[in-house]
Amino acid sequence: MREIKVWTDGGSLNNPGESAIGVVVDFGDRKNHYKAKVGIATNNEAEYLAVIYALKKLREILGKKKLKDVKVILHLDSELVGNQLLGKYKIKEEKLQKLFIKFWNIKIDFPNLEIKIIPREENKIADKLVKSLLFVKKLF
Predict the structure, then answer these.
(1) What DSSP character marks residue 121?
(2) 94-107 and 43-62 helices, crossing angle to 10°
(3) DSSP 10-51
(4) Distance (Å, whole) CA 46 – CA 20
(5) Residue ranges of the domains in the chain?
(6) Which residues, 6+ apart, have CB-to-CB distance to 91 below 8 Å?
(7) I want to staple 126 with a disulfide (CB 3.0 to 4.6 A). Which of 22, 40, 56, 77 is the partner?
(8) Which residues contact 54 (CB under 8 A, 6 or more apart)?
(9) 3-state class of 9 per DSSP?
(10) CATH T-level fold of 2-134
(11) pTM for the full model?
């Protein structure tokens, strides 16, 4: 079975504040990097939005049929969000509950999804993508 590794990260300034996401997808023969601003959100909301974005992007690239033959390993450094996605932590915040439902509805298309919570040091590229959007130096 083909394996695709994905790293996601999300962050916000002032929590809540201006937020961005970063996603790295390793297809084995190439790595794609994605980043986007996601408006005003908390760090945890941005983490969820990064996961949702990554899964939607994979579904768009591969199509639903091919996802059945692919193992997707999702790496994220948020202990809270990771454990909520794994069903180990309750989701008390209403906004996170809504984002979890979006994740769950997308997850249906990923029968071989594995979620790994990793140390922040192992998520440097996705983190740099987020920071590149949030910490833009002003010229004037």
Answers:
(1) G
(2) 20
(3) EEESSSSEEEEEEEEEE-SS-EEEEEEEEEEE-HHHHHHHHH
(4) 7
(5) 2-134
(6) 84, 97, 100
(7) 22
(8) 6, 8, 23, 25, 34, 74
(9) strand
(10) Nucleotidyltransferase; domain 5 (3.30.420)
(11) 0.95
- At residue 62 the predicted structure's pLDDT band, cuts being 50, 70 and 90, is very high
Q: Which amino acid is at 101?
A: I
Question: Could you give the CA distance from residue 83 to residue 130 in angstroms, rounded to a whole number?
Answer: 22
Which of 84, 107, 110, 108 minimizes the C-alpha distance to 95? Answer: 84
- Which run of H or of E encompasses 77? none
Q: How far apart are CA 91 and CA 134, in angstroms?
A: 27
List all residues 6 or more positions away from 65 whose beta carbon is below 8 Å from its beta carbon. none
CA dist., res. 32 & res. 43, Å (int): 23
- 71 neighbors 112 (Cβ within 8 angstroms): yes
For the chain, report the end-to-end CA distance as a whole number of angstroms.
Answer: 52
